[in-house]
Amino acid sequence: MLKRMFHLTDAGQKAVYRSAIWLAAFQVLAMVPMLLIMHLFTSMYARLQGERAEGFSLAGYVILGTLLVIAMYLTYRKMYKVKYLSSADESQHMRMTVMDKLRRLPQSYLSRHDLSDLTSTVMDDIGSMEGLLTNQITEMISGVISAAVTILVLFFFNVKLTLALCAVIPVAAFSMALSEAVSGKTNRKNRKAKLEISDKIQEYLENIKVLKASGSIEEYQKGIRRKMRRLIPGLVLFEFLAGMCVAIAYNVLRAGIGIVAVYGIHLLVEGEISVAVFVGFLLMSVWIYEPLSYTCEHLGAIIAAKVASHRIRDILEGKEQSGKDSIKFKNYDIIFDDVSFGYDRDKKVLDGVSFTAKKGEYTALVGASGCGKSTICRLAARLWDKEAGSIYLGDQEITDVDPEKLFHLYSIVFQNVTLFNDTIYNNILIGNKNATREEVLKAAENAQCMSFINKLPDGIDTVIGENGHTLSGGERQRLSIARAFLKDAPIVLLDESTASIDPETETKIQEAIERLTRGRTVLMIAHRLRSIVGCDRIIVLDQGKVVGNGTHRELMENCPVYHKLYTMQCESESA
């Protein structure tokens, strides 16, 4: 049950049960001193009455006490090792499982979730689960086990008084069961509100320069403050609702001590029990309710962890992109056959798109902003899956190919460059981890990077900061291109590869692209139409449809949309 509820491995579930059993053993051993006290009290009371009583000698009590302390130490030590070490392993495994799952999910899933949301799941939600498994669940199970063992032992002393002791437990259990129904909805709302605040804070940090420049930073902060204030009543309400149920259960259990005392006096007066048994039951009632009281206190944490568990489950049950990894391709032509796609169900970005980007040719995608150029590149690499039609790589439908197998065949330069807080060398090396230093330097040279790398204090070993913030937009773009060159894949996708680059550098990069991609399938996007005049094939898009397909000369004669775009751009550059 724990495995399914909290996404544990078999080893993790066994570790929770083992640690709970060891903790229960420690709690049962901790009950033994009370039994010794009862035995000692019975012996002393008998002697006080002038009766002969058998008991341990002082040495016997010392020996038993010493053995008991050693046994308690060993059981607690074993519980501690099993509980905390296994919990850390399980937490690490759970985080890596979620991260590996995210790796296999399509881009469509990731785009529907904010980065802060996914980060919160990997760190905060799994952190909550770790605390739950380490403490709350273990102590709850051990509390139930030790209480059951204690009750079983007490039945041998007196059945009636034991039943009186147990009378409050069903009432407390019912109150605890109500806690989830009463406070669960509020807890889920609070979690959603916290994520919204986290998203706003991340947005604030990412855009703080823009907010400062626009003079709207104070207003943005006020918006975050308002969200935080609106969260407070929900947190208070949750604590009240959950705390009310837990407090009722807690106090009902405490009332059980009074029931035992009152009913015990009645049995004592009636002569059904001895004074020793009465005193022993009073001591035991205090002991038995203690672990059950801890169970009540931990209930709120378990309710909160259930929300975290559901969020983890949403990721783990996400539909993966699947396919075979042993497929062989006759060639690397990219074929779109009547492909339709939309990021939203109500709005199509592509509508019946058909074209072929052949191996050994340069195929360019052009059109106004928002016409679907970048979407075609994403679909070609299966970052997203099309809704209708077919996309082939050679003679294979790409949905039949394992995505990671497919990625090995592509060198991609995205429109939005992502760099790591590392050296320039390591950022380029991501393109091919097996490349030599000479190959990395060659890729940097071909992408026209050496002109700015040589000016840096440590050259190619310079650390460029988070997402390359120490570099200009054009320099970051060129590093991304160098990374793609280094991969040396049979297919090259260039999504706005010359964005943020000056005309002189753009010309050099186009020359490098022509030299390094010869014989490969090249699908490229560029706003500057003069950079693609020499392409083998140009696909013109307008509102998600192909309205032109041919060479520059053919399109200038036969495609009004392309003619207009090219003419307007030439006039703009000459102005």
Spell out the helices and strands N to C. HHHHHHHHHHEEEHEEHEHHHHEHEEEHH
Overall 3D shape: elongated
- Please summarize the sheet with the most strands: 6 strands, mixed
CATH superfamily of the largest domain: ABC transporter type 1, transmembrane domain
Computed over alpha carbons, the radius of gyration is 35 Å
- The CATH class name of the largest domain reads Mainly Alpha
Poorly predicted tracts of residues: none
Oligomer: single chain
Based on helices, strands and strand pairing, what is the structural class? alpha/beta
**Count of helical regions:** 19
Side by side, the strands of the main sheet go: 6-7-8-3-9-10
Residue fraction in strands:
5-15%
CATH topology of the largest domain: ABC transporter transmembrane region fold
**CATH level-two architecture of the largest domain:** Up-down Bundle
Distance linking N and C termini: 72 Å
Helix content: 55-70%
The overall pLDDT, averaged over residues, is 80
Give the total of domains.
2
Number of DSSP-assigned strands = 10
